[in-house]
């Protein structure tokens, strides 16, 4: 299959440039497109065969539900059977934006999109290219991240090209994403609502609008339970190399990681370290990458996946990563790092 790349000119944005990709979606084909979180791999959410193509292209397990993306609230009528008042409050506050709401699905949504669940995950992305693509297609678009299943999510078009070129019909290059981590997923069918995946809208932000939300234990490894949201059950966000998190007081973390680096070097292993700006100069690993300062968690969030992919490019065998404070978007950062490391954490 030939993959066509459409590069968006942000200086002179012309929605008509997206029309061929929109028509491809309407014809049941696959299109990768930018959002404010990560790049998504889109198909007509109400077309079972089109949705099935997403799973084949990604190598994604079929029991992992998809998020449906809309550009207008009127589209909800075909997607969900009801919208609670608290959900409407959140839509008014955070849409368009990095918040996915789980709601009772309508009869029009096929099981392929929801993995057989009676609920559907819906969001409205805060990205002009994504919104115009959805509008031009006339569809609601089911879209997981546009990467091979299990790999770090793509935050620029080159990541998508690396993973999916030749597997899908179109890739829309809209530059780098802003948030860099997937959307928050909030289950509105529970009382109180439950955060199933932390993301760009923090727990604190949600609670300012609707009061208490339940976070509970967010899975950090592989689960045997049926997932109600993407990112809950399977290995996700992982580089090719083995990855271990090291948590504790800053200098003890640096010393511990350097000791581990020496041990792995003695085994002829190429070592990598994911370090904050405050400590990066203290490491002796072969490759030291920095997503940003601890004082700028939004920068760290936007850079994490790019760093994990860069470790793959450097061919490291083992990655040691610092941990980050889990307040605000830091909860999402740590969720992704724990999943990437399949739950392996050394506490010092």
Q: Which features would summarize this protein structure in a list?
A:
five-stranded parallel β-sheet; ten-stranded mixed β-sheet; globular; Rossmann fold; alpha/beta; DHBP synthase; 348 residues
Brief write-up:
The mean pLDDT is 94. The protein has helices at 19-26, 48-58, 76-79, 85-94, 111-114, 128-137, 157-164, 203-210, 250-265, 297-314, 330-340; strands at 4-7, 31-33, 40-44, 67-69, 99-104, 119-123, 141-142, 170-173, 184-187, 194-197, 242-247, 271-274, 287-289, 318-322, 345-347. The chain is built from eleven helices and 15 strands.
**CATH superfamily (homologous) name of the largest domain:** DHBP synthase
Name of the level-1 CATH class of the largest domain: Alpha Beta
The helix content, as a percent range, equals 25-40%
Low-confidence stretches: none
Major β-sheet, in short? 10 strands, mixed
CATH architecture assignment name of the largest domain: Alpha-Beta Complex
Radius of gyration: 20 Å
Termini Cα gap: 50 Å
User: Which structural class do the helices and strands define?
Assistant: alpha/beta
Mean pLDDT score: 94
How would you describe this protein?
This protein is an alpha/beta fold and 348 residues long. The chain has 2 domains: 4-210, DHBP synthase (Alpha-Beta Complex), CATH 3.90.870; 242-347, Threonylcarbamoyl-AMP synthase, C-terminal domain (Rossmann fold, 3-Layer(aba) Sandwich), CATH 3.40.50.11030. The protein contains 11 helices and 15 strands. It has helices at 19-26, 48-58, 76-79, 85-94, 111-114, 128-137, 157-164, 203-210, 250-265, 297-314, 330-340, and strands at residues 4-7, 31-33, 40-44, 67-69, 99-104, 119-123, 141-142, 170-173, 184-187, 194-197, 242-247, 271-274, 287-289, 318-322, 345-347. The strands form 2 sheets. A 10-stranded mixed β-sheet has the order 1-8-2-3-7-4-6-5-9-10, with helices on both faces. Strand 9 and strand 10 (194-197) form a beta hairpin. The longest helix is centred in the last third of the chain and has 18 residues, at 297-314. The chain is globular.
């Amino acid at each position: 299959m030939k993959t066509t790349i459409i590069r968006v000119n942000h200086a002179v944005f012309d929605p008509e440039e997206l029309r061929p990709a929109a028509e491809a979606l309407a014809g049941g084909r696959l299109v990768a497109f930018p959002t404010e979180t990560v790049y998504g791999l889109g198909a007509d959410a109400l077309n079972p065969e089109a949705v099935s193509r997403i799973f084949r292209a990604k190598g994604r397990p079929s029991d992992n539900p998809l998020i449906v993306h809309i550009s207008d609230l009127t589209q909800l009528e075909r997607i969900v059977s009801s919208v609670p008042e608290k959900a409407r409050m959140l839509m008014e506050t955070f849409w368009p934006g990095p918040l996915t709401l789980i709601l009772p699905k309508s009869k029009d949504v096929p099981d392929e999109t929801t993995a057989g669940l009676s609920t559907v995950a819906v969001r409205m992305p805060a990205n002009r290219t994504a919104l115009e693509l959805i509008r031009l297609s006339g569809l609601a678009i089911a879209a997981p991240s546009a990467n091979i299943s299990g790999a770090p999510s793509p935050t620029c078009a080159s990541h998508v090209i690396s993973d999916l070129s030749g597997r899908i019909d179109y890739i829309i290059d809209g530059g780098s994403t802003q948030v860099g981590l997937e959307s928050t997923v909030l289950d509105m069918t529970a009382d109180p609502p439950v955060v199933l995946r932390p993301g760009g809208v923090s727990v604190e932000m949600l609670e300012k609008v609707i009061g208490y939300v339940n976070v509970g234990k967010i899975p950090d490894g592989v689960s045997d339970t049926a997932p109600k949201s993407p990112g809950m059950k399977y290995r996700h966000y992982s580089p090719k190399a083995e990855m271990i998190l090291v948590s504790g007081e800053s200098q003890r973390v640096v010393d511990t990681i350097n000791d581990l680096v020496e041990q792995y070097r003695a085994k002829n292993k190429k070592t990598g370290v994911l370090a904050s700006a405050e400590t990066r100069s203290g490491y002796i690993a072969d490759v030291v990458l920095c997503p940003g300062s601890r004082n700028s968690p939004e920068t760290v969030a936007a850079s994490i996946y790019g760093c994990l992919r860069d470790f793959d490019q450097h061919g490291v065998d083992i990655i040691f990563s610092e941990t980050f404070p889990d307040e605000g978007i830091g909860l999402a950062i740590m969720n992704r790092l724990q999943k990437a490391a399949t739950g392996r954490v050394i506490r010092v």
